[in-house]
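agent> call fold_tool(seq_1)
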Amino acid sequence: MSQEQLSAPEVTRDRIHTVDDESFVEENVCIVTGAASGIGRATSLVAAANGLTVAATDLDEEGLEGTVSKGETLEVAGSIEPIAGNLAVDADLERLVEEAASLGDVKYLANVAGLQHIDSIDEFPMEIYDQIHDVMLRAPIYLSKLCIPHFRETSDGRGCVGNMASVHGHYVTSDKVAYNVSKFGLRGLTQSIAAEGDGKIRSFSVSTGYVKTPLVTNQLADTAEQRGISVDEVIQDVMLGQSRVKEMMEPVDVANLFLVGFSRLGRHLDGGDLLFDGGMTLTYE
């Protein structure tokens, strides 16, 4: 695989998994962060295709409009409502949940948004660490805090939080300390929600290897420079080297996992992690 092959194809209707679930109706709202591109956009499309109203949020307003437009092209059964905001600003998080609640019953939260920065620990800029922490860990915690009371107010008192973790929430690679710490933290958040949810408010995390997203393609050059290797070597040796499945997942593949986790099929998935990593973390040569 070369850098040219890393761009994910457009989401098509036949790639979207659907589940017959009585809670997947337009009256119920799914909040999705990072919804302007990549996994967040795909999760918004999959949730809306399954009949939910999606409160799609991102700092990138143009990207959000692209997500809405794609949903219209796919003629999704639900709707996608864009709510621009900055996950590092508490007032924006509060406004997001308030606006989502005005659309219907807040039932699902998909914490997908992510950032990346490549540097060794001794060189890592703390202002960038703080930014990554705020977006990738603090915001999911605060959004969960804000959403849980809404879950309890629904007719059955149920709700679910899905967190985008990673193989980096199981083991780490070098030069990504902020990302690594955030992903481990998301798994802690997942289990904390499960511990307090009494089986009615569930949580799960999704851990994948490298996915064809802008977050991945944008880190190629920095990783290559940091390790003193070529971009193609980063792809073949770093990203796919330990995977037994020699292809990257696409955003819609990950979005489908969120859908299953939210659905009745995931009713026993509570605090658990969906590890879809091609064998990266559990096998070795």
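agent> call fold_tool(seq_2)
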Amino acid sequence: MSASHPAPGQEAPYYFVPGLSGHPVRGSVALLLFGLGMVMLVNGMAAGKWVTLVGVLSFLVVLYFWFGDAIRESEGGLYGRRIDISYRWGMGWFIFSEVMFFAAFFGALFYARLHATPELGNLDHRLILWPDFSSVWPNTGPAGIIEPFATVGPFWLPTINTALLLTSGVTLTIAHHAVIANHRSKAIVWLFLTVLLGAIFLGVQAYEYIHAYNDLNLKLSSGMFGSTFYMLTGFHGFHVFIGALMLSVILVRLIRGHFTPTHHFGFEGAAWYWHFVDVVWLGLYLLVYWT
């Protein structure tokens, strides 16, 4: 995810092809452990938290060494214009895949709210299956099989988080323009503020989850609303964490003197991802908290 300039006196190869690497396999195993651990957690298995922790730590280790290899290749002058273009296409398609990922969950939310809930409340279902069902969103399900819960409104925690992410988009843009202008110190300060805002966002979201679970009785098992709420906001929070991690790597690289005004796609790629995360949150804020 980094494209730098060739080393002084060295011309980048026509197209650099790296050697065999075990990083993809190790990363897949780490993600498998993470997914298995989350499934165990959802099903109340005590070992779930430890399996999840091992998966997360393993994935972070893989990222550390994988990023390190890419950075060494970049700073060694192995990445030329064609590699830069490849990285741009790769990052573009990756973000598109993330768009479709969130589209699936937004689609589930729309289906449950605009189709399934009214359908269950029509005359046939009320007379034959669930006469006491109320077709309002959100609801406690047919026959009241779900514990009563309250929803999370837009004020004040979600609004605070919206302001944090929008501000982080501004600070990141300032940092990017500072890189282009070759003002490294300015770029470092504004990028640090961006990472800090992302960390504060995650802290506020964690507090919101504690409040929702303990005070509002809103859980993953709280019907379709609870599942879509936590899947959308939870996966978004995970993406904020990954984005902040990427920007932290870029920050360290800036401090070490990497990137030039004309060759800094490592910075740009992470910035694209962060702005994508910002846009997804705006959709969440409007469609989950306000409606």
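agent> summarizing second result for user.
The domain at 81-289 is CATH 1.20.120.80 (Four Helix Bundle (Hemerythrin (Met), subunit A)). The helical segments are 23-42, 48-75, 81-120, 123-128, 157-180, 184-214, 223-255, 265-289.
agent> awaiting next instruction.
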